[in-house]
Every structure is written in C-alpha cells, then in structure tokens.
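Hey L., structure's done. Input below.
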Amino acid sequence: MTSTIGVDPTAQPTSRSVVGYLPAVLRVLIGALFVVMGLNLIFNFLPQPPGAMSPGAVAFGNGLAASGYMPVLLGGTQVVAGALLLVSRYVPLALALLAPVIVNIVFFHAFLQRSGLVVAIPVAAIEMYLAWVYRDYFRSVLTARANPRSR
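Output:
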C-alpha cells in the first residue's frame, strides 16, 4: 500500500487544463468586445477604421442612423448581453440575444464591407462554440412539440 502523508487519496485534482478555462476566457473576451462596441454605437467614442466604406455599407449605416432608434437598440442590446457574459449570469440568454446581432455583423461584412470579416468570423466562431458549450440550456427552447402547462 502506497501512501503519502497529508494527501487525501480520494481528493479530486484541483488543476484544470487550458481547455477547461477556454469557455470562460472566450465568454469574457466576447463580453468585453460587445460592451465596448455597444457603448460605441450609443456614444460614438472610437475612431472610424481607416479606408473608405463601400457605398452599400454607407447606405446601410445611414439607414440605421436615420431610424433614430436602431443604434441605441443595437448598442443597448450589445451592452446588456456583453455585461451578462462578463459577470457569467444568464449566459444562454446573452448568447441568444447576441446571435442575430452576430449574424447581421457577418452578413454586413460578407456583402458590404469585406475588410471586417477578419473580426466577424472569429466572433461568430466564438458564439457558436459557446452555444455548443451551453447547449444543454437550449434544449428546452428547441422542443418540437411544446405544450403549455395546465393550471
């Protein structure tokens, strides 16, 4: 019988591999990105990237701005969802709120301003990875035949 003094043989190892930390690191990374970019949509404090935007991208941006509410709605959604990801609360809800925003970001850069695909594709990949990691929490939403509760 081999024994080490002061070591509990039934204790679980306390160290986690790098892969074990990956969901938390990516959650914080994407949360911080959306908090900052959402605040920028509302307050416009970051400089515009260098280079000319395509006419379609300019028209799209002007249309959103002309609505009067879309930049604030999109920015507010991004700030709230990003903050939820940062504090690790309601993470599946935050991912669900960000999914259509991210789809729009990818399509915007795929069709109107290709230079942003360098950021849009990794953001979409992180979103999909986190949705996969938290997939058990989405199962009830994906129920094909949901019945309301009876009183």
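The chain has a mean pLDDT of 91. The chain has five helices and no strands.

-- N.
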